[in-house]
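Hey,

The postdoc asked me to send both predictions to you directly instead of through the lab channel. I've kept everything plain text so nothing gets mangled by the mail client. Protein one:
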Amino acid sequence: MHSTFTLTSFNCKNVKRSVDNIREMCRFSDIIALQETWLLPDEIQYLSTIDRKFSSTGTSAVDTAAGLLRGRPYGGVALLWRSDVFQNVSVIQCNNPRVCAIKIVTNDRPIVVISVYMPTDSPDNLSDFTDCLGTLGPSGEMLNAEKPEGKVAYVLGPRTWRNVIRHMSRGKSPGHDGLSIEHLQYGGAHISRVLSLFCNLCMSHSYLPPDLIKTIVIPVVKNKSGTCRIWATIGRYPWPPL
């Protein structure tokens, strides 16, 4: 017999101002996902005061290390869950302030619950948009945050790939696939997310496609005189010939 839970998602636009609405949701919800909490990093504990029957976790999108804060806070996500219903819950750590998640172990199976505040899919927000998609992907940063005992989780996120592609040197010869560095650099903003998903899947399954293992090796003679340096050196000593 499968258990049934009630999940509510709410873009509260300031959790303190909307706390009465959230408390009303606590009356009929088992899990509440909040977006735009507008909390500072040192205010995350406020979530635990909303309802004593609920545990909580959350992230702040405000960088207090940037100096003097101006204007209102912004962003931030949170999750609240009923403590008496879910007794085996672990918080999944991720490096994106737009995402928070928990792993709940039930009698049926473990489930992952995510609260995410996605940026709009516009050219100005494309970098943040692809980072969020990469985090939520089947092998993205957040879902690889937990690893089996004794295993090492290698994670290359979209931001890492974007930086690598940006700093790659142009003018190099392509491989057997005919793709050059310029193809990657002009492949569009989503290519970093695609490469992140692909490579993390390969590493998680310890598998590389056969075509990815092929390479082209071209021997190049560095000594234009035609005399091999190692032979010239060996000739000076009574070493046996190779």
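Protein two:
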Amino acid sequence: MTTGPDAPGTDPADDAGPDATEHPTDTAPGPPGGPPGGATSEELRVGAALGGAASRLVRPVGAALLAAYLFVGFAGTVATTSLFAAVVPRIRAVVLANSAATAADLPPADPSPLAVGLEPTTAVGLVLVTALLAETVHVVAVRVFVGDARSLPDRALADLRARALVSYIANSLALIAVFAGLFALVLPGVFLAVAFYLVRAVVAVEGAGVVPALRRSWRLVAGHRLRVLTVLLLVVLLRQLPTLPGSVVAETPLPGAVGASLGVVLGAVVTAFATAVAARVYVQLAGMEAAARETGDTDEAAGGEAAADEAAEEPLGALSPEEIDEQFGGR
């Protein structure tokens, strides 16, 4: 029997400390009265999700995905900034021609150093293409990070275009709902952001459709919302990091393109890490649900017989951690 940090299917970052039960291939006995195999626990382990994500990102497959995120990051930034550079001057001209505002009131905005000269329709098309390309990378990344990420899973590229399109639509609807909630009373938006946190993972791993993915994410997160909110807040804080290089470079003689490029690079790293974290959260919550189905454990206070019936009914496409590892554990 092979042991040690380099043994297949083990990961020191996953197995160390109290968060060891996060890894789907762990077979250590669980706590008395807990789920069999120790693969799951009653609470989402935030530290295990963060540590598991970081350890997977530095592996060769994770590095390859990071390169893909860099590509779509630069492509998306060029497309988006080019769209703004093409549209904003036209909007400014219309406002000046149809209002009492003067040119001094609306000074022209400096275009991003990464913007290129494009017609608005071309820029819009490029934005859509890069958005779908980025969603494709997200789907592949989730399928890699739900496993051990030591090699590319056989199913990583299966049905990719359809899954990416479904994921893009589902996440777009979720984002619209979140922004509507934030605009209304803030708290509903935060609640919806937590509830739909796992939409992409559900689509990528389980092959769910748009509405089933929204419902499935809502169900997986239920009972763990505060811990998922903690994860979301950490991710939101990390997403502020890409804005720092531009501010720092602005105080130096370096060209603005340097700061913008560094921001894209840092943004790609943060995005890849955030995707990995979501994948690891999904594995934990899917494992808890699978264990609850096996033991028939339900929260009677949350819904009595209705909750028991719902927990006993296995969702379409639902996978246990062992099944996830079997399908996405690498070659």
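Summary for protein two, as requested: Residues 60-328 form one domain.

Thanks,
C.
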